[in-house]
Amino acid sequence: MCHFCNTFNNSKTNLVIQSIMKKLGILLFFLLIGLQINAQEKKWTLQECVAHALANNISVKQSELELDLAAIDKSDAFGNFLPNLNASASNSWNTGLTQNITTGVLETQTSRNSSYGVSAGVTLFNGLRNQRQLQRVKLSKLAAQYNLDKMQDDIALFVANSYLQVLLNKENLAVVKSQNEVTQAQIERTNQLVEAGTLPKGDLLEIKATSASEVQQIAIAENAVKISLISLAQLLLVKDYDTFDIANDDYDIIDDGYVSKDVSEIIESAQKNRQEVKIAENNVALAQKDLQIARSSFYPSLSGFFNYNTRESGSSRFVQGIDPNNPTYTEEIGVVQGTNQSVIGTFPNTIIEELNPLPFQEQLYNNDGISYGVSLSVPIFNGFSARNNVKRSKVNIKRSEFQLEQAKLDLESNVYQAYVDANGALKAYEAALVALESQELAYQYAKDRYDVGLTNAFDLSQSKLRYDNTQIEVNRSKYDYIFKIKVLELYFGIPAEELKF
Q1: Can you say whether the dihedral through the CA atoms of 424, 428, 431, 433 is positive or negative?
Q2: Sign of the CA dihedral 224, 227, 233, 236?
Q3: CA-based torsion, 357, 358, 361, 362: positive or negative
Q4: CA end-to-end span of the chain
Q5: Which of 202-206, 330-334, 372-376, 480-484 has the highest mean pLDDT?
Q6: 90-128: per-residue pLDDT in tens?
Q7: Whole-angstrom Cα distance, residue 334 to residue 332?
Q8: In the UniProt record, which is one GO cellular component term (predicted)?
Q9: How far is Cα 231 from Cα 356, in angstroms, rounded to an integer?
Q10: Ramachandran class of 108: left when φ > 0, alpha when ψ lies in -120 to 50, beta otherwise
C-alpha cells in the first residue's frame, strides 16, 4: 500500500513539473516572438538616420580626430613657453688602468663611480616664434572645426537625399500596386462582358497584357525599394539589411521663402556662413602666420640655463694627516748671515692614509656644484635656408589667396546652380500636378467611354499608362523639389540639424 502511495506521489510530482516546464516554454516562445516583432517594427525616421550617421560615419570620425590632433598641437605650442627640467643619473664600474677620481693618479683598479644632475632651461626670446606658433595652432584648430562642420553638413545632406530616394521608390511602388488593383478589377469586369458577347476577346487580352506589364513594373519597383534601403543602410553602417526599414511618413514641401529670395542675398549669406569660404580664409591666415614664423629665424635667440651636479664613488679615499708615532720632524731651514749658524725648524710630520669611502649622502653633499647663466645665439649665415623659407611662405600666401578667390567663385556658381535648380524643380512639380489633373480626367473619360463601349481596351490601357507615369512623375518632382530646397537652405546658412522636412 505504501509503495502504491509513493508511486502515485511521484507521478503527481512529475505531472506538476511537466506543467510548469510547458508554461515556461510557452512564455519564452511568446517573449522571443515579441522581441522579434519589436525588432522588425523598428522604423528609422529621417532625424534618426541623420543623427546616427553623424555619430557613426567614418569620415565624420576622421574629421573629429583631426580636431583632437589640433588640440594636442595647441598644448605643444603652449608648452614652448614653459621651462624644461631634466634629471640625469649614471653609475659605472671601471676595471683596469683608470684614473682615481680622488687623487687623480692612474691606477690599475676596479672602481665604481656615479654622478647625478638636474638641468633646467627656458627660452627668453626667439624672435617671437613661440607666440606665432601658438597663434598658428589656434588657427589650425579653427580650420579643423570648419572641416568637421562641412563634413557633417555633407553627410546630413547625403543621408537626406538617400532617405528621400527610398520614400520616392516606395510611393512609386504604391502607385503601381494601386493601379494594378484597378486593372485586376477591369479584367474581371471585361471578362464578364466578353462572356456576355458585349466586348470582343481582344479587349480582354489587351487588359491582361497591361496587367502583366504592371506586375513586371511592381517587381522592378520592389527591387528599387530594396536597393535604395540597402544603400541607406550602408551609409548608416547598419549591417542588418533584412529588417532595416524607414518610417513611411508623408513629407510635405516646406518652403520658408528661400526660393523667392533674391539670389544675391543667398550668395552674400553663403559667403558669410558656408565652411568652404571660411576654410579658404583660414588657410590664408595660416599662410600669413607661417611667414611670420619663417621671419623669426632672422632674429637672435636668448635662453637661460641652470645646472646642478654631484658625484659619488665607491673607491677608497686618501687623507693627509699627522703621523701619531712621529708627529714632528726638524730640518735646517737656513743659516744666520755673518755667523753661519744653522737655523733649525720644526714641522708637522704628515702621512697619506687610505680610508673607506665617506657615506653616500655625505659624498653627494661635498661634491655638488651648480652652474647658471644665459646663452645668446645670433644667426649669421645658414646656407640661405631662412631666406628661402621666407620666400616659400610668400609664395604660399599667394597660392592661398588664389584658392580663396576660387572658393568664392565656386560658391557663387554653386549657389546660382542650386537657386536655378530649386526654381526649376518648383516649376517641374507644378507642371506635374497640372499634368496629373489632366491625365486623371483623361483616364476617367477613357474609362467611361470604355464602359459604354465607345473605345477599345488598347486606348484605355494607353490612357491608364499615361496616368500612371504622371503620378510617378509627380512623386519624383516632389521629392526632387524638397531636396533642392534643402540644398538652398544649407547655402543660406541653415545648419543641417535645423533643416525642416
Answers
A1: negative
A2: negative
A3: negative
A4: 82
A5: 372-376
A6: 998 878 887 766 566 777 777 788 999 999 999 999 989
A7: 6
A8: efflux pump complex
A9: 84
A10: beta
For the chain, the domains span: 47-82+122-299+379-498, 317-355
pLDDT tens digits along 345-403: 788 888 777 677 888 888 888 889 999 999 999 999 888 889 999 999 999 999 999 99
Task: Name the pTM for this structure.
Answer: 0.71
Measured between alpha carbons, how far is 2 from 210 in angstroms, rounded to an integer? Answer: 83
Q: Which residue has the cell 699627522?
A: 322
Q: What Rg, from alpha-carbon coordinates, does the chain have?
A: 47
Closest listed residue to residue 474, CA positions, set 446, 444, 437: 437
Is 421:485 a contact under the CB 8 Å cutoff? Answer: no
Highest mean pLDDT among 205-209, 222-226, 379-383, 454-458: 222-226
DSSP, collapsed to helix, strand or coil, labels residue 483 as: helix
More confident call, 340 vs 311: 311
Q: For the packed helices 263-273 and 275-295, what is the interaxial angle rounded to 10 degrees?
A: 40
Give me the residue label for grid cell 525599394. Answer: 225
Question: What would the mean pLDDT of 466-494 be, rounded to a whole number?
Answer: 85
Strands 369-377 and 84-99: unpaired
CA 496, CA 149: separation in Å to the nearest integer?
9
Strand, coil or helix: what is 192? helix
- Look at residue 308 and give its three-state secondary structure: strand
Q: Which amino acid is at 330?
A: T
Joined grid coordinates for residue 276: 568652404
What is the identity of the amino acid at 131? Q
